[in-house]
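job 3f2a | input accepted
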Amino acid sequence: MLTDTALHADPVYAGMAHHKRRSRFPCQQLDKYIIRLQTSGSCEALIDGAFVHILPGDLLMFRPGDPYELILKDNSIDYYVICSGSWVDRWWERFAPPQKSAIPLDDDLLKLWNRLEKETIRSGDAGSELTDYTLRAFCLTLQRLYETAGMEKAPSPAHTAYGIKRYIDQHATEALTLEEIAKNAGISISRTVSLFKQSFNQSIMSYAIEAKLAIACERIRHTSMSLDAVAVSCGFNSYTYFHRQFRTRYGLSPRQYREEQQRSASFPVS
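job 3f2a | predicted structure (270 res):
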């Protein structure tokens, strides 16, 4: 039987990806492991033969031989690790993670993810002992967070903050109030407001508008709805306010955005 020192863990790629526009990662059969964590925005992932909506806090884990396909939405942000190696083989077999789950998020995990990205870039294709053990530490930390997710009586502040963000994403087109958001989070309004600001460096209202605008972009691009109807369907009470927020965010009016999309002859693929 192989010992840990005889095994190896090879991070091939690691990092953070920000997809500013809708794109598609075409279906392929994997030859390496992929670990992907949605941190902002949303996407759809092929899970057990069907596309599943992926929101912030959702963890995707695929092994060699699995089919892998994503439909990425506007302003989707994720952290990812692509890896291989005999240590990873054994760890994965013992862990046996589902393809989709949710984990309590904290700064330590993302810092470790960033550390892995830096070490992978420094070591290049050859890899190093440091990248090997950084990947092992990352995998074991991820497993611990997953395994304790159902045992925590009180979620961490970061987990609560991501839960608030998830709730906003799910109800973005509705007339959300701070009272409703705080009630769903199980904390006071003042705590909800301050926790979200501390975690994401923006207000709840600012993020809610971003979420509404991202949905509006989808509907402008992929439906024949009038721009007034798009504004109403995305939760904006007046077209004037929608127009102002859209131009501030994207540098174009909704009409100019639709015309630009209509002129685009190709569908971006990543």
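job 3f2a | The chain has two domains: 4-148, 157-263.
job 3f2a | closed
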